[in-house]
């Protein structure tokens, strides 16, 4: 009886120590990962802040400013695009909108003037909020209809006319640095958390910024794209939070591909990841095949990429094609 009690106590005590140690390790790992991601964000923040300081220091001609904005995008891999958006008449008398924007596209660094009747940037959160707050602001993820045409998050930094004491007097405009959500998701997924753990980012307002394994979606044109984030608070984080319902309409032939992280995070012998980009390339080449053939080819590509490297995680793939039951049966889909 005494032996049994001693054994039970020893088990309970050992279990408590193990759980406490596991919790301590998890907290330390979380802090370490948070610092690494924070360093990446801080590196982005410095870019528009430095440009704002330059614009406040004195007159800057158009060519110099455009050259600086282009270099900001060209020389920083984490930045998708950057704009300098001016207040009405601030850049030039009689000019209501002036917002030169450089961003990365398939053809290289692309330029657009984003201010117009159809895109009144003065009403956009990325411009209005930092102007009103007189302070830099990170935006929750949004779809950029002004230039890049992608889901992104933006760091917006205001610049001012300043008084003799250095205090801001009148806002002259906003400098932005855009970060694509795809780049940010790739950064988060590149951080290894134990054997099966993963990271995600939640904004200050509770919005789920990055999430794991976004599904791929494509139609008969076979141009696959990753589904964006849900755009609302994470379940259980904020009490009495409200959620909006989104609707996704599939046309006949649309395919949805869901997968576990063992797909994009399959390693080769050199430690390189299969990655979302390779996944998209494979799907682009085989997207018109039957869903059975799509999954088989994808598994073959992953196995070929690994070149004998051990499987790092489970690999599960599900492909669904929307269409009539009859057409699916007769085509073997």
What does this structure look like?
The chain has 333 residues and is of the alpha+beta class. It has two domains: 30-183, Beta-Lactamase, CATH 3.30.450; 213-331, PPM-type phosphatase domain (Phosphatase 2c, domain 1), CATH 3.60.40. Helices cover 38% and strands 20% of the residues. The protein contains eight helices and 13 strands. A hairpin with a 5-residue loop joins strand 6 (151-162) and strand 7 (168-180). The radius of gyration is 25 Å and the shape is globular. The N and C termini lie far apart (65 Å). The relative contact order is 0.09.
The assigned structural class equals: alpha+beta
Judging by the overall fold, what is the CATH architecture of the largest domain?
Answer: 2-Layer Sandwich
Distance between the termini: 65 Å
- Secondary-structure element order, as H and E? HHEEEHEEEEHEEEEEHHHEH
Number of helical stretches of at least 4 residues: 8
Whole-number tally of structural domains: 2
Strand content: 15-25%
Largest sheet: 7 strands, antiparallel
Q: Say which CATH homologous superfamily of the largest domain is assigned.
A: PAS domain
The radius of gyration is 25 Å
């Amino acid at each position: 009886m005494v032996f049994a009690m001693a054994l039970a106590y020893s088990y309970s005590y050992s279990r408590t120590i193990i759980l406490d140690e596991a919790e301590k390790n998890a907290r330390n790992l979380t802090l370490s990962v948070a610092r690494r991601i924070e360093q990446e964000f801080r590196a982005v923040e410095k870019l528009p802040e430095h440009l704002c300081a330059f614009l406040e220091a004195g007159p800057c001609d158009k060519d110099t400013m455009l050259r600086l904005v282009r270099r900001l995008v060209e020389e920083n891999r984490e930045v998708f695009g950057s704009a300098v958006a001016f207040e009405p008449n601030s850049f030039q008398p009689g000019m209501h909108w002036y917002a030169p924007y450089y961003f990365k596209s398939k053809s290289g660094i692309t330029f657009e003037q984003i201010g117009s009747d159809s895109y009144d940037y003065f009403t956009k959160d990325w411009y209005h909020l930092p102007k009103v707050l007189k302070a830099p602001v990170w935006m929750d993820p949004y779809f950029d209809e002004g230039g890049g045409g992608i889901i992104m998050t933006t760091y917006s930094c205001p610049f001012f006319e300043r008084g003799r004491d250095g205090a801001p007097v009148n806002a002259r405009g906003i400098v932005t640095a855009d970060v694509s959500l795809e780049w940010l998701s790739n950064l988060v997924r590149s951080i290894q958390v134990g054997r099966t753990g993963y990271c995600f980012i939640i904004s200050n307002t509770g919005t789920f910024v990055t999430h794991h394994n976004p599904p791929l979606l494509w139609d008969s044109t076979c141009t696959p794209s990753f589904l964006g984030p849900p755009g609302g608070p994470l379940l259980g984080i904020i009490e009495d939070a409200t959620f909006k319902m989104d609707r996704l309409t599939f046309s006949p032939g649309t395919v949805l591909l869901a997968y576990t992280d063992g797909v994009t995070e399959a390693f080769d012998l050199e430690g390189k990841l299969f990655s979302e980009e390779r996944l998209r390339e494979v799907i682009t080449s085989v997207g018109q095949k039957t869903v059975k053939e799509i999954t088989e080819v994808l598994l073959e590509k992953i196995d070929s990429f690994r070149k004998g490297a051990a499987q790092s995680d489970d690999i599960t793939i599900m492909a669904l094609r929307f269409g009539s039951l009859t057409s699916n049966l007769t085509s073997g889909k």
